Predict the 3D structure of the following.
Amino acid sequence: MKLDKIQKLLNYKFRQVELLEQALTHRSYSHNCNNERLEFLGDSVLGLVISENIYAREPEATEGQLSRMRASLVKQEALTRVARDMNLGDYINLGSGELKSGGFRRSSILCDTLEAIIGAVYLDGGFDAARESITALYHDYLRTLPDIHSLKDAKTCLQEYLQSKQIELPDYLVVKTVGKSHDQVFTVTCSVESIGLKSTGKGLSRKKAEQEAAHKALGQLKQ
């Protein structure tokens, strides 16, 4: 019953239903037969299908604009939205520890599972089947693509602003790291010495912390 429901959501009927079962199996449930390899494959297939779609839908966009638009649709936040739209957490096979800690709600697990499912569809039915399934899952998001100019990240916007004013580019420095290796919080400063600009950002990765620091720096400049 569970597999029938998810196949309807995918708009695809598996010939090898064991592939779908594997795609829904987290490593905490089975060390030997889980979805990690399918996730690797699905990530590439998803990227290609999304690229194909936005290439056709945005004929005036530059390569850089297309890259930013693709990134906005395949990043963790976007994958999480798609996974939650289909209540994917209800279908994942998780070990007891992950179940108790709410793993079925965790973004990383939802995203990895969605990519694994796409990989399974590709292996079972080929690229055309994967394209149809992805296009169905992303229908609303592809129909309402974000404005190209709104997709620049904070670091890029800050760099362009400083360059337009002929000001030196900022320096980013990790000043603090807290937590274990798999669950760290980074604190980063963004500074432009010549104009006395300094801001601080925090994030679960260095990249996210830098983006927050750049965002705050932009706010200071535009006050």
Q: What stands out?
A: The chain has two domains: 2-147, 154-221.
